[in-house]
Structure formats: C-alpha cells, structure tokens
C-alpha cells in the first residue's frame, strides 16, 4: 500500500488535470507521468498554475469541500462512461462531468486556477496534506 501522501498527490493530480480541461481519465488512462523536458505540450492541454505561497484555513476548507464534490462527480461519470460505447455519448458525458466539476469549485468561491494552485501547495507540504485529509474526514462525516 502506498503512503497516504502519495495517494493524496495522485488524487489531487487527477482532479487538477480534470479541472484544467483534460478528461481522458474517463477512458481509463493513467496519470502520474511527468512531461519530459523537451516534450511538446498536447493541444488543448493547459499548464498548471504556479503554486500559491500560502493557503489559509478558509481556502483549505473550500478546497477540501470542492475536492469531495469533484470526487463524487468523477465516480459517477467514470462509471457512466465505462458503460457507453458511443463516442458522441462519451464526449457528452465528459462535458457534463467537466461542467459539474467546475461548478463544485465555483460553489466554494474558488476559481479553477485557485483550486489548482491550492492543490499544488497542498501536494508540496506534508503537514498541509495531513490537515487536508483531516478536513476531508470532517466534511464526509457532515454529509
């Protein structure tokens, strides 16, 4: 079993990738591969924003709530896409998932860039990672 921080990084990376407009996870592709120096960025793929210097408690809580909602959307639509064989229907489901994920972020008062920036900071700070997990457990108990 991987350490908690590695699992968290994978979740946040996946979520950040989905939110910046790249949704191949719905086709079962894997992530975690870094772009090698000299590789071209794929068309339609945006660079992730640079991490913010700090994340306050309110930002972290908004991020965690959005993350929980995004995970629900991702699970729902991943299952739906796996059952569909029509490429047009797959694209439609991916677009709906994208919209719902954006809404989950915006409902927490964050932009997608802010969300991705917070994710980068959380990923780079083990203490903040643990704090995010604690908040996530609290959020899940309240739902």
Write up what this structure looks like.
The protein has 143 residues and is an all-alpha fold. The chain has one domain. Helices cover 65% and strands 0% of the residues. The protein contains 5 helices and no strands. The two termini are 27 Å apart.
Shape: elongated
Low-confidence stretches: 4-14, 20-45
Number of helical elements: 5
In total, the number of strands is: 0
- Overall radius of gyration: 15 Å
Features:
143 residues
Set down the secondary structure blueprint.
Blueprint: H1 4-19, H2 57-83, H3 87-106, H4 112-124, H5 126-142
Write a brief structural summary.
By secondary structure, the chain is mainly alpha-helical. Helix content is 65%, strand content 0%.
